[in-house]
Every structure is written in structure tokens, then in C-alpha cells.
Design brief:
AAA family ATPase, mainly alpha, TPR-like_helical_dom_sf, two-stranded antiparallel ribbon, 34 helices, AAA_22, P-loop_NTPase, five-stranded parallel sheet, single chain
Length: 714
């Protein structure tokens, strides 16, 4: 599941250690962002661009009521994933078939936000094109970028980042040295040695941090002497200064030389990872006869101690990463050993196995853990698919991986990226029928949820025909199931019921039981209920509920609860319907499943007006209206799914009248999805309990909600 949102919109990471110096640069960036809508910080690797822009963004956060959002692109290699990375950073979940760029532009169009783009140089042309359109279409947007070269767009203010001044460099070195040796002090000769070291390293922050890491074993004077000897060697014995880029590479290389052989080997092998990685993956991918698995932790700890590897805590547990410049150095050494291809295949194989485990474990009490793990590993999963697509003989592995990740695409709100990969891997013809067929039915499923019936029926028909020809009963069952799902959302209820009954029979014959099978039951219950057999619909969903409780499944449960709430409301029990819907809503929102979220909000609005609060019901409808464009055609354009909406509107209009109903809709439309869900989950009693003593009625409401409250009083 995604981590909870910060109180202020945005996704800037917390600083792991103190930011040192750069006061004048921070002031200059603040002034530039006042005058220009695009500001780019450029400089060599390791000079501190990323840290500077994130620090500047944090200091300016209060200027941007819609938040500061960081997009990190260093691990994104495929230009086709650029827009997906930006959408992900903005927290956008778009279930539609439209290009991600359209969703990004629509989101930014009327918002005052700061977009921080870091590490774009390898995607500079595509990134420049996207930023150009965003700045043109979103007049209140500002962009702060960091890369090794500018974007070269009109109006861009470029800030070449110099290395640190002697004073700042000395402060940084002392700060980091104290982290390694708490007794470290800048006194006497030690201060002079440290200052000379900072000058020899040209004030490059990464080089200084690496040098500070050596103080566990050496004095400052010894570090300086050994580094100075290396510089003399590279400059032919003179004291002429190296170019700054070469200074950094020399400092990294010197750290590399001072590492023990097993540490050098692990450093090189770690370069195959994209983004973060965990210990289990390192032990499998990087171990061998020359680096036993049981020694990896100790070797990794040595690299951590020298600041070559950084530790980070995440929702998926303790993880590690290397800075880009350090990773690049390791990759060069790995290439020099001729071992790159083998390590990349081991990396790919590990993540194929991880995806397989995640798919199986999705149907278990560890579903939330699986969601967090898969999301944190997404850069590595992408790299595994890219690796497989480089060889026609291994393309079937990319098809298998893209299909196996259906739970990530569908259950965790990543339909758009899922479709990108599924279509991409299916461009390759492979003789491996099972992998291709799985990718086809998953593509059909994604297309159904995106509201693309043409794309869905094309993929599902191909899957079913090829599955029957190949005798693949499993793929045929999934194709029938998803064709039934398509009939359900396009109001062909009799056909939907027949296909879903057929699919469930096939699943029983196969002994198949997982979240997809449970969803087939829920969808059959929906079709059955819409056709007037509420009793059978309830019985089906109660069975699903029991199975979910037995297996710890939550995602399919949210949809079963939705159907049970619908039935409870039809039976005249709005209190029970509300309890069921609030549980459904909490689960869907936790998995970032927008479809489940917006369906629950729509039905909750009808419950609310039935309970006598027409204004709140209309507000919930307005909140749902804001979400639907990211899901697809509102309520699928379905008469059946749209019936609760129509009934709620009728009752609310009768109670409020046109003007007050419109005001309530508008107030709901101002609520971001997170705020709308939080409001829906909050009971009236909790809201009163949280009101501060003496706080006026309506405090904390949005402008639209305040207008609505005044209208109601009038």
C-alpha cells in the first residue's frame, strides 16, 4: 500500500542528514523561481545538484498551495516511461486509456505547484518536450530541474552549480567526519589538513563525503597524503589541478582502491540494480564462488561504512541504494570484467522469481506487504523486462513478467503503465504460448477497466482462440471471465451472467482459487443483482467474504462489500450499508484502487441522502465527479451502475433545490481524492470530537464547503 500522505501536499523525502552551506545558491534559486517558471541547476556528477534542489524546494514549499513534487528520473531508462514516472510522482492514478501526458496536463492545469525534476540528462529531449507542454498548458506551474545539462527551453534560467567554497566544504567535511568519528574536531594541524583536503577535492560534496568515510581507519593527514599521492601520479608528479570531473572520478577511484577486493567486487555487481535494492536480492544476484552469500552482509556493511552504499527505510523495509555517479563507476568496472551480461541475467531471474512470489502471495494476509514490495521494486522490474526484450529468444520472459504483474497494474492503480508494458512485450512473436496468452488476457482486463471495449475484445478474442487451439484451459478460462466482465460494464447483463458462470465452472475444473476467481464471483453477483435476484447476489458475496477472511484477502473483499452494501440499502438498511461501504472504501483507497474508491463514494452518497443529509450527499457526488475522469467513462456509461447516482440526485434536488445542490456539487469537486475519502470515513461524532474548544462552526472547510454552509443557513 502507498504510504500515508503528508499533511501538506507533496512528496519531498525527509533529509537523512543536515544540509550544509550553499546559502547564496539557495537564495539565488528562490529569486530565479520568482522571475522564471523554469529554473535548471546544472553541474558535474557529485557536485550536489540533487541535494540543492530538494533543499530549495523544501524551503519554498509554503509558496505552493498544491504542493512540491519530486520526480527522480535516474532509474528510468525507457523514454516511454517518462510520463508514467511523472504521473507516479504526482500521485496520479489514471485508469483511462488516454496517454499519461493528458492526465498530467489536466492535473497541473489549474494548480499552483512546483515540479522538481532530477536526473533527466539521459532523457533530455523527451523531458524538454514534456516540460514545454506543461508550462504552456499550466500557467501557475513552476519547474525546478537538476541535470548535467540544461533543457534549452525558452525562458529557462540556468544555474551552473559551482563546487563548494572552502568554508562550506570544510563545514561539510567536519559534519560528515563527526558522523563517522564522534570525537572528530577541527583543531590545530587537523584543521589545516582538512582544509587542504577540501581544496584538493575541489569542494565536490560527494568526494568529501567519501573521504570522510575513510576516517574510520585513517587520520585526516593520512587521507590527505594518500589522496595527494594519487593526484601526483595522475598529473605526472606536478601539483597542477585536475579537471573537476576528473577530480571526482579520481576520488571515487581512490575509494575504490582502498576497498578490500570483495568490496570492489560487490560494488561492481551492485551496479546492475535500478533504484533501491534489499539484502536478499544482493545475496542472490551478487554472490558466487568469489563472494559467498554468507559473506555478503559483512561486505555490504563495509561499503555502507564508506558511504559507497546508502541505507534507506521504506514501507517495504530496510533497503539500500548507490548514488548515480558511484553506480556508474561500478558499472564500468563490471563491464571491464566482462561479467555485465551474466549479472544482468541473474538480476532478471531474481525479479522474475520475485514477481511470481508476489502474485502467489497477493492471495494471502500479506497482500499489503506484496503491494509495498512490488511498488518499491518497480524500477528493478522494469529493468528486468528491458533485459528480456533485448534478445528475441528471451522476449517470452518479458511477456511472462508483464502478465504476472497484473496485480500491480490492476490492484495498485497502475493501469496506464501496465498497458504500456503489455502492448510492448506483445509486439514480439514468441513460441511460448502460455506467457503470451497470459499477457493477452491481462491486456484485455486492463483495457476493460480503462473503458476501451475495442482493445479489450481484440485481446480477449485472440487469447481465447489461441488458448483453445493450444489446449491451454487456464488461459481460456481467464479470457472467458474477462469477456464476461466487459459485458457487465457495457450493460449486457444476460451475456455477462452466462460468461461469468461459464468462467467459474472452468475455474472449478482447474482447481483455480485466487483473487481473480473471487472477482469473477463478485462480478457474477453484480450481474445477478442487476437482473433482480438480490438474494442470490448476497449469497455469492457472503461466500466471497468468508473465503477472503479465511485467506486474508482484502482487495476482492472491497468489491464484495460494495455489493453487500448495495443489497442492504435496497432492503432498507442504510446503517448496515454505510458500515459495509466505509470498510470497502478504506480498503480500496489503501490500495490506491480508484475504481473501487469512486464506486463506494457514489453509493455512499445515496446512503447519505437516504439518512437525511442531502447536502453531504451532493458533496460526495461532487467528489466522485472529480475522480471519474481518471477512471474512465463515469459509471461506465451504464444504466445499472448509474441507477444509485440518478436516485441520489433526484432526492438531493428535491430537498435542496437546484442552486444549493449545485453549490454542494461544487464544494465536493474542490476536494482532492484523499480529502474526500478522509471526509467520508470520518463520522459526525469524530468530527465534533476533533473540533477545538472555541473553534467556530465550519472552521477548516474549503472555500466551497464554507459557501455551501452559508447557503444552507440562508
Amino acid at each position: 500500500m502507498r504510504r500515508p500522505q503528508n499533511p501538506r501536499p507533496g512528496n519531498l523525502p525527509a533529509e537523512l542528514n543536515d544540509f550544509v552551506g550553499r546559502e547564496s545558491e539557495l537564495d539565488a534559486l528562490a529569486r530565479s523561481l520568482d522571475e522564471s517558471r523554469l529554473v535548471t541547476v546544472t553541474g558535474v556528477g557529485g557536485v550536489g545538484k540533487s541535494r540543492l534542489v530538494t533543499r530549495a524546494a523544501a524551503l519554498l514549499e509554503k509558496r505552493y498551495c498544491d504542493g512540491v513534487w519530486l520526480v527522480e528520473l535516474s532509474a528510468v531508462h525507457d523514454p516511454g516511461l517518462l510520463e508514467h514516472a511523472v504521473a507516479e510522482a504526482l500521485g496520479l492514478t489514471d485508469h483511462t486509456a488516454r496517454p499519461p501526458r493528458a492526465a498530467i496536463v489536466e492535473h497541473c492545469a489549474d494548480r499552483r505547484l512546483l515540479l522538481v525534476i532530477d536526473g533527466f540528462e539521459h532523457l533530455v529531449d523527451d523531458c524538454a518536450a514534456l516540460v514545454r507542454e506543461l508550462l504552456r498548458r499550466a500557467p501557475r506551474l513552476r519547474v525546478l530541474a537538476a541535470g548535467r545539462l540544461p533543457l534549452e527551453l525558452a525562458g529557462e534560467a540556468v544555474h551552473p552549480l559551482a563546487t563548494m567554497t572552502d568554508e562550506d566544504a570544510l563545514r561539510l567535511f567536519a559534519e560528515r567526519a563527526a558522523g563517522v568519528r564522534p570525537d572528530f574536531r577541527l583543531t590545530g594541524h587537523g584543521r589545516g589538513h582538512a582544509l587542504e583536503l577540501c581544496r584538493r577535492l575541489d569542494g565536490i560534496p560527494l568526494a568529501l563525503e567519501l573521504a570522510a568515510g575513510r576516517l574510520r581507519a585513517l587520520s585526516t593527514e593520512q587521507v590527505l597524503q594518500r589522496l595527494d599521492d594519487r593526484f601526483r601520479l595522475l598529473t605526472g608528479g606536478t601539483r597542477g589541478a585536475l579537471e573537476r570531473h576528473q577530480t571526482l572520478r579520481t576520488a571515487i577511484g581512490w575509494s575504490h582502491e582502498l576497498c578490500a577486493p570483495p568490496q570492489r567486487l560487490l560494488w561492481a555487481r551492485l551496479s546492475v540494480f535500478a533504484g533501491q535494492f534489499d539484502l536478499e536480492a544482493v545475496e542472490y544476484i551478487c554472490s558466487g564462488p568469489d563472494l559467498p552469500a554468507d559473506s555478503v552482509l559483512d561486505v555490504l556493511s563495509g561499503l555502507l561504512a564508506q558511504s559507497v552504499v546508502l541505507r534507506e527505510d521504506s514501507p517495504a523495509g530496510t533497503r539500500y541504494r548507490m548514488l548515480d555517479t558511484v553506480r556508474e563507476y561500478g558499472a564500468e568496472w563490471l563491464a571491464a570484467t566482462g561479467d555485465t551480461d551474466r549479472l544482468r541475467r541473474r538480476h532478471r531471474d531474481w525479479f522474475l522469481g520475485l514477481a511470481t512470489w508476489c502474485e502467489l502471495d497477493w492471495f494471502s494476509p500479506r497482500q499489503a506487504e506484496v503491494a509495498a514490495r512490488a511498488e518499491s521494486e518497480l524500477p528493478n522490474l522494469r529493468r528486468a523486462m528491458e533485459c528480456s526484450l533485448e534478445s528475441p529468444q528471451e522476449a517470452h520472459l518479458a511477456q511472462y513478467l508483464a502478465g504476472t504483474l497484473w496485480f500491480l497494474w490492476v490492484g495498485c492503480g497502475r493501469l496506464s503503465e501496465g498497458r504500456h508494458w503489455l502492448e510492448h512485450v506483445l509486439e514480439e512473436e514468441t513460441p511460448y504460448d502460455s506467457s503470451r496468452l497470459k499477457a493477452l488476457w491481462v491486456l484485455g482486463y486492463v483495457a476493460v477497466l480503462q473503458g476501451d471495449p475495442v482493445g479489450a475484445i481484440s485481446a480477449l478474442t485472440e487469447c481465447r482462440e489461441e488458448a483453445e487451439a493450444a489446449g491451454d484451459a487456464t488461459a481460456a478460462a481467464y479470457a472467458v471471465h474477462r469477456t464476461g466482465c466487459l459485458a457487465l460494464v457495457t450493460d449486457d447483463m444476460e451475456r455477462a451472467r452466462g460468461l461469468l458462470d461459464d468462467a467459474l465452472g472452468r475455474y472449478r475444473e482447474l482447481g483455480e482459487l485466487n483473487s481473480n476467481v473471487l472477482m469473477a464471483q463478485v462480478e457474477l453477483a453484480m450481474a445477478t443483482g442487476f437482473l433482480g435476484d438480490a438474494e442470490r447476489a448476497v449469497a455469492i458475496c457472503e461466500e466471497v467474504r468468508d473465503i477472503c477472511e479465511d485467506h486474508g484477502e482484502r482487495w476482492a473483499l472491497s468489491y464484495a462489500l460494495y455489493v453487500l452494501a448495495y443489497a442492504a440499502l435496497e432492503r432498507g438498511d442504510p446503517e448496515r450499508a454505510r458500515r459495509l461501504l466505509l470498510e470497502s472504501l478504506a480498503i480500496s483507497h489503501g490500495f490506491h484502487d480508484l475504481l473501487g474508491t469512486v464506486l463506494a463514494l457514489e453509493l455512499l452518497a445515496l446512503v447519505t441522502v437516504t439518512e437525511g443529509d442531502a447536502a453531504e450527499a451532493a458533496l460526495l457526488q461532487g467528489a466522485a465527479d472529480r475522480i471519474w475522469p481518471s477512471v474512465g467513462l463515469p459509471l461506465f456509461g451504464s444504466v445499472y451502475y448509474g441507477a444509485p447516482r440518478a436516485r441520489c440526485e433526484e432526492l438531493a434536488l428535491r430537498e435542496l433545490g437546484g442552486a444549493r445542490y449545485a453549490a454542494a456539487l461544487g464544494a465536493g469537486g474542490e476536494l482532492a481524492p484523499d480529502a474526500a475519502v478522509a471526509r467520508a470515513l470520518r463520522t459526525r461524532e469524530n468530527a465534533k470530537a476533533r473540533r477545538l474548544p472555541g473553534e467556530r462552526e465550519g472552521a477548516g472547510l474549503s472555500a466551497g464547503e464554507e459557501r455551501l454552509r452559508l447557503d444552507q443557513r440562508a
